[in-house]
Write a structure and sequence with these properties.
The protein is an alpha/beta fold and about 325 residues long. It has a single domain, classed as UDP-N-acetylmuramoyl-L-alanine:D-glutamate ligase, CATH 3.40.1190.20. It is about 35% helix and about 20% strand. It is built from 10 helices and 13 strands. A 9-stranded mixed sheet has the order 5-4-1-8-9-10-11-12-13, sandwiched between helices. Helix 8 packs antiparallel against helix 9 and helix 9 crosses helix 10. The longest helix is centred in the middle third of the chain and has 16 residues. Belongs to the carbohydrate kinase PfkB family.
């Protein structure tokens, strides 16, 4: 059995090289990319946990490409293969200011959009220490809204800790739709990760990040609430106490997957027995390293992360 089981869609990401535009490129770089698989990889690399990513994919060369790439990163895959539905993709244009980075989704009629809870191995989920998914998954189809809720319920019934990244995507649904659906999932969640902007703009909660964490922690039955603040780092509410950690200095090569790297490292260190402040520290360091790496995946080592942490500690002690 795996220690961490994640559930969601992993797409194929196609990107023009050298910050070129899609309409002007004659080549595309292909990578596997998905929040839940990114978290599984980061968790396995930053702790002693074994990770499994579970999903539904088309039985096609593109679906098999996803599995082959994830296996290459060392995680297990538990896939429901389908003769119907397609492989989700997205196109990514990197650009500096003022153009910025642009994401174009092509994930309609995908195999995972029809996934139902009974198709998956409940023993795998209930045998894990942590079951993780995100708010992206229920945004993909009405079927997946019910499936996500049922899988969270199954995890809870088996005594598995449930972790959930709110992960609002405005290109997938409106704030009103997201709030109405995701708050219904909250009773089945132990650990919530949410961006401060999403708590404010989607959940309509007022206040600074510290107040947001307290409000979410007191209003819902979460064990831990992690509020991310982008370049300002993150904080966590746990046992009615808020712990704060800033972001580490980094040079950004590719920002995609930064939040997933943070979450995977945070969960890994908590599973290994670290306290919340230490888990925040590792999460922030992993996120900083991820921004230096092309692609969605945090291909970092624990030694590299500890190097960032210790270097910062040395600066503070001088």
């Amino acid at each position: 059995m795996s220690d961490v089981v994640t559930f969601g869609e992993t797409m194929l990401r196609l990107s023009p090289p050298d910050h070129r535009r899609l309409e002007d490129t004659d080549e595309l770089e292909l990578r596997a990319a998905g929040a839940e698989s990114n978290v599984a990889i980061a968790a396995q690399r930053l702790g002693s946990a074994d990770s499994t990513w579970t999903s539904k994919l088309p039985d096609s060369p593109l679906g098999r490409r996803v599995v082959a790439e994830l296996n290459k990163y060392g995680i297990e895959t538990d896939v429901v293969w389908s003769d119907e539905g397609r492989q989700g993709t997205y196109y990514l244009e990197h650009g500096g200011k003022p153009r910025g980075t642009n994401v174009i989704y092509d994930r309609g009629n995908t195999a995972i959009s029809t996934a139902e809870a009974q198709e998956f191995d409940v023993d795998l989920i209930q045998g894990a220490d942590v079951f993780f998914t995100t708010g992206i998954t229920p945004a993909l189809s009405p079927t997946l809204r019910e499936t996500t809720m049922n899988m969270l319920k199954a995890a809870r019934q088996g005594g598995t800790t449930t972790a959930f990244d709110f992960n609002y995507r405005r290109k997938l649904w409106s704030p009103e739709e997201a709030k109405g659906t995701l708050t219904k999932l909250f009773p089945g969640i132990d650990v919530l990760v949410i961006a401060a902007r999403d708590a404010q703009n989607v959940l309509d909660i007022d206040g600074d990040p510290r107040q947001l964490a307290h409000t979410l922690g007191s209003q819902f039955d979460f064990t831990t609430v992690v509020v991310t603040r982008g370049s300002k780092g993150a904080l966590a509410w746990h046992d009615n106490t808020v712990y704060d950690h800033g972001a580490y200095e980094t040079e950004t090569v590719d920002p995609i997957g930064t939040g997933d790297a943070f979450t995977g490292a945070f969960l890994a260190r908590r599973l290994d027995g670290d306290d919340v402040p230490t888990a925040l520290e590792y999460g922030a360091a992993t996120a900083a390293l991820k921004r230096t790496i092309p692609g969605d995946v945090a291909l970092v080592t624990r030694e590299e992360v500890e190097g960032v942490v210790s270097e910062d500690d040395e600066e503070i002690s001088r």
